[in-house]
Amino acid sequence: MRALLAQKLEMTHIFDEAGNFVPVTILLATPSIVTQVKNTETDGYEAIQIGFGEKKNHKKPQIGHLSKANIMAKKLVEIAPEEGRTYKIGDKIELDIFNEGEKIILQGISKGKGFAGTIKRHNFHRGPKTHGSHNYRAPGSIGAGYPQHVFKGQKLPGRMGAVTTTVKNNKIARILPEENLILIRGAVPGPKKSMVLVYSLSDKKAETKGQGAE
Predict the structure, then answer these.
(1) Residue 210 has pLDDT above 60, yes or no
(2) CA–CA separation, 95 vs 29, rounded Å?
């Protein structure tokens, strides 16, 4: 599987060859470093662990693990290896694995909205504001009198956002290899400076096991 880690910078716009206005999201995609290689014999499955960025103040076990690849990565993620390619610790995965105009899949952590009510979180209607009603934004009834408890899965107030989000069929509008930038057509999940996993739509879906080195 062709994949790498990138950091979301900001949104802007460009003009294509036909002069059309194209909104894009800029991702910083410095080379991802292979920090671990797993195989069927020792681990039971084949995968590679890649790292992105630099971070200080790692714990001793993480320092020992990452020092083998000579990188103190800020983010680690495990992906399926690309077919027909042999990896070793310290290898670099760069932007040349993708092409302009190619459709890709983006996976990141969506923006956290904090504690939200049912109107914002589940698109409930508000109550009437006339005839003495004070039920403006309350959720209303959440079940019958029997069996005297709330069923799981009810749409209620709670924490909104900050969940793993996958967006498919986004196109690569432009690649700037000299600046390690990749411009994605449209929006990308997550706030600025967040980590995004970019992988090819033509390959099989990635089975990722995120290991945040935070």
Answers:
(1) no
(2) 7
Phi first, then psi, for residue 79 (nearest 5°) are -135, 165
SS3 163: coil
Average pLDDT over residues 185-194: 94
Domain boundaries, the chain: 3-111+168-211, 116-139+153-161
Can the peptide bond before residue 147 be classed as cis, meaning omega within 30 degrees of 0?
yes
- The answer to whether the Cα torsion of 15, 17, 19, 23 is positive or negative is negative
Helix (H, G, I), strand (E, B) or coil at 44: coil
Q: Give this prediction's pTM.
A: 0.81
Amino acid code (one letter) for 16: D
Query: Is 5 exposed, middle or buried, given 0-12, 13-18 or 19+ CB atoms closer than 10 A?
Result: buried
Taking all residues of the chain, what is their mean pLDDT, rounded to a whole number?
89
Q: What is the CA radius of gyration of the chain?
A: 22
d(CA 142, CA 14): 48
| Topology given in CATH for the domain delimited by 3-111+168-211 | Elongation Factor Tu (Ef-tu); domain 3 (2.40.30)
Express each pLDDT in 147-177 by its tens digit.
888 888 899 999 999 999 999 999 999 999 9
Q: What are the tokens at 92?
A: 């670099």
- Cβ of 185: how many Cβ atoms within 10 Å? 20
Q: Given the structure tokens 């320092």, which residue do they identify?
A: 63
